DNA sequence: AGATAACTGTCAGCGCGCTTACATAGCAGC
DNA sequence: GCTGCTATGTAAGCGCGCTGACAGTTATCT
């Protein structure tokens, strides 16, 4: 009996462009925000010209909660940068569904697939109503070719993601589930809490929900966390982190 | 760690002995070899000037079998490109040791850590007597800043590694050990064989050797592989790949 | 307010992979 | 040859996490 796979009420996907204020000024502010998020600034600061070149290409898109932002298997149309809300990246469906990652404000996606001309390996669902900045493929390529600082910053951005991905592999291999759970909670914490249901957390670790629940209740008995509805509250982050070793 | 998928090209692997000629010519040939290995050529072909700039900075280093190429925890002194032999990247020690990856000819390492100014997360041991091309950190940075094509190619190289790393995570989550073993064998195959002892393969999956051995003998009984001393011979790659699903 | 969907809590049975241990086989050195 | 090291083969016991199921709780919708 299918419990509740939520394959999204797709195509409910309403993309609408944001207006408001002076369009140019808004665009520059968004570009500046992207500049802060992509890669490390020290290596290659953005000039005003870099910023306006970037601003000229960014489009703002609003996605409703539950909507599919992009679908696995299709060629990426460009680069997404999450500005507000969370996007869940998942593979497979039903019982075999695994959540690869949940991205939030400042995170970038689609660039890798564009650079390598490969299809998207995962599907992105909006967990909240979200705002996403979009850069189409050709514009992205043009910016990389003409703006040195942008190319350099993008390199460090991708490098950061690679380091995080490798870290995650190291964190999986040879760890007990308890260690992995402690690590996941510490990593996904936002303002002292992890705003994700146990079902999603379990999928991120590739385990079943009852297995996760058992460990969470154990942590709760020890006073490390408080289990809420659709969220975990972290009470003792230090002890939690020490369990991740 | 560069995914050693495409570099399985025998042509690339036989190019290791770049003998003869003047030192300059040798350097240029090495640089051209690096150019073929790093990233995707279509996006940004190297000019002759790019090649000679790269050639001027490369140093050739020979490491003995079993030697430590670099040690985890230390800041990286630059970028390594494996030309001949295999380097095992591992974390931890003793029972908790896990092999993150084994890199071979054409693979690149150290650049990520340099770009992010972070310590190396793993230690590199030479599994064979190996030749490594070395690019020190300052030279690397200089090349990125002055050579557009090199920066662009490096971006796609890092992107390829990130895609491979994410693939690996997807391949781990929710898979049975049997599926993971089939996948690992298919991925690490070099000329129809996997030249690694079971101990190393087990560490790459984060499992114990007896668990791996049981599955390997099972595969052998089914005629998929032949277990040799320090190596696995692949007999039926297609059926093996189908088991990885 | 009531209906519905989504989330949490829990249990019993079972199988995979871990642990420990030991025996055998291949390989390199003198 | 013999020695020592490393790799492979295998078995018994055990515990973790999976499976499937169901009850209770909280949020969302109309």
Automatic annotation (TrEMBL), chains A, B:
Protein name: Crp/Fnr family transcriptional regulator
Top-rank taxon: Bacteria
Pfam families documented for this protein: cNMP_binding, HTH_Crp_2
The keyword Transcription regulation belongs to this UniProt entry's keyword annotation: yes
Domain Cyclic nucleotide-binding: 51-161
InterPro entries per record: cNMP-bd_dom (IPR000595), cNMP-bd_dom_sf (IPR018490), Env_Response_Regulators (IPR050397), HTH_CRP (IPR012318), RmlC-like_jellyroll (IPR014710), WH_DNA-bd_sf (IPR036390)
Keyword annotations from UniProtKB, A to Z: DNA-binding, Transcription, Transcription regulation
Domain HTH crp-type: 175-238
Native source species: Haloechinothrix salitolerans
């Amino acid at each position: 009996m299918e419990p509740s796979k939520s394959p999204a009420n797709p195509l409910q996907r309403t993309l609408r462009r944001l207006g408001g204020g002076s369009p140019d000024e808004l665009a520059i502010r968004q570009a500046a925000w992207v500049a802060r998020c992509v890669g490390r600034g020290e290596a290659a600061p953005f000039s005003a010209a870099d910023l306006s070149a970037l601003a000229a290409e960014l489009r703002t898109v609003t996605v409703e909660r539950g909507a599919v932002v992009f679908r696995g298997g299709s060629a990426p149309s460009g680069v997404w940068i999450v500005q507000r809300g969370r996007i869940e990246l998942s593979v497979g469906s039903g019982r075999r569904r695994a959540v690869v990652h949940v991205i939030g404000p400042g995170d970038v996606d689609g660039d890798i697939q564009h650079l390598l001309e490969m299809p998207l390996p995962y599907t992105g669902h909006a967990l909240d109503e979200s705002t996403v900045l979009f850069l189409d493929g050709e514009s992205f390529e043009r910016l990389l070719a003409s703006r040195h600082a942008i190319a350099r910053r993008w390199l460090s951005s991708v490098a950061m993601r690679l380091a995080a991905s490798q870290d995650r592999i190291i964190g999986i291999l040879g760890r007990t589930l308890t260690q992995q759970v402690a690590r996941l909670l510490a990593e996904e914490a936002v303002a002292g809490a992890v705003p994700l249901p146990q079902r999603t957390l379990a999928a991120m670790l590739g385990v079943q929900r009852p297995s996760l629940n058992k460990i969470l209740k154990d942590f709760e008995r020890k006073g490390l966390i408080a289990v809420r509805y659709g969220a975990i509250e972290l009470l003792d982050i230090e002890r939690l982190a020490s369990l991740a070793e």
